[in-house]
Backbone:
């Protein structure tokens, strides 16, 4: 059960020692000093933690949060992801704690969408500023054709255990063609998730950051001021933050291994993924159906609009290249891999034009009996023997960071505020038992 944060809490026993420790929230309420947190990373994990720190911190407390990210909001792998959101594996099996993750993620998406909508309305009445005409979330569902008998049987079995909030409907070729004309359905069966959505990650993260800023600016009575700052700079080591913060939460994905205190100590594998951006040429009038879903197969197609979509993703294991920029040679090799997979299901992609490629370096967690689960927990023992519940990790989101980040960010924020790692399910902290 999640803790109730209507009042400050004292927690006895920190995340790794037997001696007594006291929650920073409780200390702050006694001394009336500002409570300060540093969040490293402004992607899915980092901004989810920030949002939930702001919402769970008692309103009477003075809270300051500093976000550090040299690439800015969504400048890393989070901003490059395809944005296909549903609570299932590629074979539509419900993922570990999929219901909680699905619900929490949709909540954050709605919050981000509302924040950008409100901002756009303000500009429409005469204020100067950016426009947000492009979508945050495209609600058209996702279609998964069955391509071989083994997959078909698994899809059929797994679809029986779908969530009522994200249904899976089996359909024949004709029904699939009504959604996407000329789509290949080799076994006359496809599986449609009408409630699944497609997020535009960069816009979503900008909206979530705006929502965090708005929440921090809400008027409070008394001492409970909330401050939020984004620092577009990198942190080269964790100990340079020593003494300045009540807690430091590391949410930098694959770059966690570049921090000297964590290098070689986390059971993470790196994987560079390339996504191809495609557009229909002006001389072709056969738009992608306005209400057509995105497509899952050996390569996924994330539809951005009637004339724009993304194809992904490649998997380059053990890469250390975190640059989002893709060379001409690298893009060419990615297209050679992705286009045949995409055209096998959606032959019309052959008429589309490649415009550019983007890349992200994913941090892939170890495989467990529950699947590939992110890594959460207190990491004082990896950073400083003198610290107590000060350093925390939220990493290894892998290929499903969009689904996991909302619910896990909520858990992480509550664990940090209370100095209580036991709030986090043991499945997410068991990585500490792996021999490193």
Residues:
């Amino acid at each position: 059960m999640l803790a109730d944060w209507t009042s400050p809490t004292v927690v006895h026993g920190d995340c790794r020692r037997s001696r007594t420790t006291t929650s920073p929230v409780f200390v702050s309420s006694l001394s009336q000093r500002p409570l300060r947190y540093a969040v490293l990373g402004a992607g899915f994990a980092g901004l989810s933690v920030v949002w939930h720190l702001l919402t769970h911190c008692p309103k009477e407390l003075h809270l300051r949060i500093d976000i550090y990210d040299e690439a800015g909001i969504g400048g890393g792998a989070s901003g490059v992801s395809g944005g296909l959101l549903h609570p299932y594996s590629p074979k539509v099996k419900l993922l570990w704690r999929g219901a909680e993750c699905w619900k929490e993620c949709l909540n954050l998406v709605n919050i981000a969408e509302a924040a950008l909508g409100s901002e756009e309305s303000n500009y429409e009445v005469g204020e100067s500023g950016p426009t947000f005409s492009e979508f945050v979330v495209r609600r058209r569902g996702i279609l998964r054709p069955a391509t071989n008998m083994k997959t078909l049987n698994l899809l059929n079995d797994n679809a029986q255990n779908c969530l009522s909030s994200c249904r899976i409907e089996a359909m024949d070729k004709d029904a699939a063609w009504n959604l996407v004309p000329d789509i290949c359905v080799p076994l006359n069966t496809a599986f449609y998730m009408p409630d699944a959505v497609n997020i535009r990650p960069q816009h979503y993260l900008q909206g979530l950051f705006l929502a965090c800023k708005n929440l921090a600016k809400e008027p409070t009575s008394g001492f409970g001021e909330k401050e939020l700052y984004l620092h577009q700079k990198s942190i080269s080591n964790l100990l340079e933050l020593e003494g300045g913060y009540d807690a430091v939460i590391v949410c930098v994905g694959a770059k966690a291994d570049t921090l000297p205190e964590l290098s070689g100590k986390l059971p993470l594998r790196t994987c560079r993924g390339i996504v191809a951006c495609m557009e229909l040429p002006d001389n072709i009038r056969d738009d992608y159906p306005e209400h057509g879903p995105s497509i899952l197969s050996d390569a996924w197609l994330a539809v951005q609009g009637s004339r724009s979509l993304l194809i992904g993703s490649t998997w380059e294991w053990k890469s250390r290249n975190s640059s989002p920029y893709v060379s001409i040679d690298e893009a060419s090799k990615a297209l050679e891999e992705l286009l045949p997979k995409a055209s096998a299901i959606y032959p019309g992609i052959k008429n589309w034009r490649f415009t550019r490629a983007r890349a992200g370096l994913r941090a892939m967690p170890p495989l467990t009996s529950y699947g590939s689960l992110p890594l959460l927990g207190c990491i004082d023992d990896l950073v400083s023997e003198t610290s107590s519940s000060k350093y925390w990790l939220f990493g290894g989101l892998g290929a499903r960071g969009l689904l996991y980040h909302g619910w896990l960010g909520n858990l992480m924020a509550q664990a940090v505020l209370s100095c209580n790692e036991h709030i986090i399910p043991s499945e997410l902290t068991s990585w500490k038992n792996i021999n490193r």
